[in-house]
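Hey, can you fold this one?
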Amino acid sequence: MSESYVFYEGNIVKESEVKISIRSKVFNYGLGCFEGIRAYFDEDSGQLYGFKLREHYTRFLQSCKSLNININYTVEDLSKATVELLKKNNFKQTTYIRPIAYKGADSIGPTLADDDNRVLIYCQPLDKYAGKPELSVCVSSWRRLEDNMLPPRTKPIAAYLNSALASLEAAQNGFDEALFLTNTNHVCEGPGENVFIVKKGKLITPPPSDNILEGITRDLVMKLAKEELGIEVVERSIARTELYASDEMFFSGTAMEVTPIVKIDNRVVGDGKQGEVCKKIKNLFFEVATGKNDKYADSCTPVY
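Sure. Predicted structure:
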């Protein structure tokens, strides 16, 4: 395997040169935040496109602000570093990018007040995260973290133990993925994905007030549905039993992309196959992500 390069503390260096102390606050307490970004490779043009870099790094810096992780980088700085990192690694396939900002101090105590703030970006090839084209999902017994626990509009590292517990429970019970409810019993999101249902011709998704991450893929899905397909999009609270009566369900997310849910709690969704709305949105999504839709050209940053 060729040497992997990462962006660390302002420079692109060999991954083998980066050391993080076992005493660091990020390792001991999860005091950090991250982003998930993709770069899509278009076989026809031989081009790799960083997908919505600006939007992702805007959210990344918002996460840092919420958690008092003060880093001296702009959205433009981080976007440029990511393009250079992808070039250095010579990636010619669809790639996942993971920026992390964290507290590197090794003093005892879970405080976010110290000034040891660090930034790391690594990347790796990633094709289909879901592992299968259609998913069977269960409502988890674990509840999603509330806004006054850990801010759900950001991506704190520590919060993903909540996600991991839900995903583990789902896997142990024979499902592909989990779905969270809020403490008021409204549908929230998956462990790392937003959720949509289709009912009576409308596309419905939980609102930000139901403790969701305001997903960047989610925003694009809503825009494509409204502007390209003429579908009414509704952001409102969803009751659990509405899932069982929906015509379609699907997840959206950077890693998950747009992936249909064909069973929920062992109940068949619709006719048990990917629905037409999901199919159309998914096709449009990949056209945008691979630079084949000029209308959305600003979503893609060419690497080469």
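The chain has two domains: 5-125, 135-289. Let me know if you want another pass with a different chain boundary.
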